[in-house]
Design goal:
Keywords: ATP-binding, Cell membrane, Kinase, Membrane, Nucleotide-binding, Phosphoprotein, Transferase, Transmembrane, Transmembrane helix, Two-component regulatory system. The chain has about 575 residues and is of the alpha+beta class. The protein is built from 16 helices and 14 strands. Helices cover about 50% and strands about 15% of the residues.
Length: about 575
């Protein structure tokens, strides 16, 4: 199922609702609109935040300028004398001429000179000379300089007021200068086009960036709607946890990004292992190397916790990887059983041929009326097999292991190999896991038979002894070519074998499985040179036997002491 048809289907299912709401469903369109709205809002807020202090700054500049004009006017030489000589305010008097000269030179709206009573001696409108000022001159007449925005007879203006002092520093009047507020607004309006041009440029750059980001998001999301992405994620979760194949996703640093339920079961991991490095979660070993992609190839075999796994590794575009796992334990065991069945069939065929030869010999002896020789020959043939079975059952008291060794002895005899149980062998019938010990013993004996077959004086010796009342030591030696010292650790690695692969798959798993089973029970495995010149494998399992009650202990091997005769 592809994503595009699903997205189209999602849009077709809700035509009326989408048309009524008018909101696009594609991720590209929604993200673009949201980014444009954000950029527009940020630009508008930034412009407003800039205009507010800019207007205040223009007001402050106008008030400072008005105050400076007032200060320079009050400093005009002789102006204080003109106000205090006792003359009356005159629209054509010298004070009016000085004030008008300053007003025209500075571009102020008005320059008003007043006496201590608040009577104008100058004004931009001459008919107002001699009238009382329209605003309170108290602070200026008290000797303080004032600047503010106020309304007067000439409208709203930025004002500056300073005291007019005589030569002795006494206040004899005041000077009030106003700058029309319209000029301040004009400066603000004249600055707006440039400010809006910058804001428009910022908005355009933001819109272009939003478009580019949305285009990239469109490619990464394959132009899907949010509802489709949510549905795909739900389907992915259902698929990951529903398939019977383990899936482990790794990030570029080799940390576990996600794993499904089957992967947790096969690798014996827990959800809290997510986020850990693969080496920290699994520990060093071939399984870690295979999952991390450090072992080339496909369908690679690994052993983890007694399970035989088939793993594949695939890299992802972001530098991470996805590893898949399949449980091949049952298939491997079936394959080994098939190998054993083929071997047993071959042995039975050879035994049938040998049995026919014996019957012919026996028939010939009877026809020659050599009855004593026939009885002796038959007793000898039957006694060999019976002696082997009795020897094994007396020393190995667990029925599963005893039956296994009897069968292996028959196969060994047909292959020309003498399979014997060492004199020191004595294993009681209280094994905790006889099937797992049978797996270990069967793998070691099969390898020993393969190694010893064809050698001079071919033989395999098996020893099973008790250690510390609950432990079992298993030793299998052969007369084969042996294993060089530099390769004795390699034989326990997955995939290592000196034999040709069987028809059902790959070799190199038997000894690796033996080591994993031993380590899972806290045991150990080792290989050395045997007494017969070949290899000798030793497996120690410290807790393989059920402990005996104190009253039943006493045998040197940890077995029950036989009851005394009465």
């Amino acid at each position: 199922m592809t994503a595009q048809p699903r997205a189209a289907g999602a849009r077709r299912r809700f035509p009326f609702r989408l048309a009524r709401i008018g909101w696009p469903q594609r991720v590209f369109s929604q993200v673009l609109l949201m980014q444009l709205a954000i950029v527009t809002g940020v630009t508008a807020v930034a412009t407003g935040l800039f205009l507010a202090p800019f207007s205040d700054q223009l007001d402050d500049q106008a008030m400072r300028r008005a105050l400076a004009i007032a200060q320079s006017t009050a400093a005009e030489p002789g102006l204080d004398d003109l106000v205090t000589e006792g003359a009356r305010p005159d629209p054509d008097g010298p004070v009016q001429h000085v004030a008008e000269r300053v007003r025209r030179a500075t571009g102020a709206s008005y320059v008003v000179v007043m006496d201590t009573r608040g009577i104008r001696w100058s004004h931009a409108e001459p008919e107002r000379v001699g009238e009382h000022v329209s605003t309170d001159p108290g602070e200026a007449l008290a000797g303080r300089e004032v600047r503010h925005i106020d309304d007067g007879t000439l409208g709203r203006s930025a004002r500056g007021k300073v005291p007019l002092r005589d030569a002795d520093g006494d206040v004899v009047g005041a000077v009030s200068v106003g700058i029309a507020y319209d000029s301040v607004r004009a400066r603000l309006l004249s600055a707006l086009p440039g400010l809006l041009a910058y804001a428009g440029g910022a908005l355009g750059v933001g819109a272009l960036a939003a478009l580019l980001i949305s285009r990239r998001l469109q490619k990464r999301t394959h132009d899907l709607a949010f509802s489709d992405i949510s549905a795909l994620l739900s389907e992915r979760e259902a698929m990951l946890h529903g398939i019977r194949e383990g899936v482990v996703a790794l990030d570029p640093r080799g940390r576990i990004r996600l794993m499904n339920d089957e992967a947790q079961r096969l690798l014996d991991l827990r959800p809290e292992h997510t986020g850990l490095l693969l080496e920290d979660a699994l520990g060093p070993g071939r399984t870690t190397e295979v999952l991390a992609g450090r072992v080339p190839g496909s369908d690679l075999l690994a052993v983890q916790g007694g399970r035989v796994l088939v793993a594949n590794h695939m890299s992802t575009d972001d530098g991470g990887a996805v590893a898949t796992l399949r449980d091949r334990t049952e298939l491997e065991l079936l394959g080994r059983e098939l190998d054993g069945s083929h071997g047993l069939i071959d042995a039975l065929r050879a035994q049938d041929h040998e049995h026919a030869n014996r019957m012919h010999i026996l028939l010939g002896l009877l026809q020659l009326e050599m009855y004593d020789e026939a009885v002796e020959y038959l007793s000898e043939a039957v006694g060999v097999h019976r002696a082997t079975a009795e020897q094994i059952s007396e020393r190995v008291r667990d029925p599963l292991l005893a039956a296994l060794l009897v069968g292996k002895a028959t196969v060994a005899a047909e292959r020309g190999v003498a399979l014997t149980v060492s004199p020191g062998t004595l294993l009681p019938d209280r094994l905790i896991g006889p099937s797992e010990l049978a797996t270990v013993l069967g793998n070691l004996v099969d390898n020993a038979l393969d190694a010893a077959a064809g050698s001079a004086d071919a033989r395999v010796e098996v020893a099973l002894t008790v250690r510390d009342t609950t432990g079992v030591a298993l030793r299998v030696s052969d007369s084969g070519p042996g294993i060089p010292p530099d390769r004795r650790e390699m034989v326990f690695a997955e995939g290592w074998s000196t034999k040709q692969p069987p028809a059902h798959g790959k070799r190199g798993l038997g000894l690796a499985l033996v080591r994993r089973l031993a380590e899972r029970h806290g045991g150990s495995t080792s290989v050395s040179e045997g007494a017969h010149g070949g290899a000798e494998f030793t497996v120690v399992l410290p807790d393989a036997l059920h402990p005996l009650p104190a009253q039943e202990r006493g045998g040197p091997d940890g077995s029950a002491t036989p009851p005394r005769p009465r």
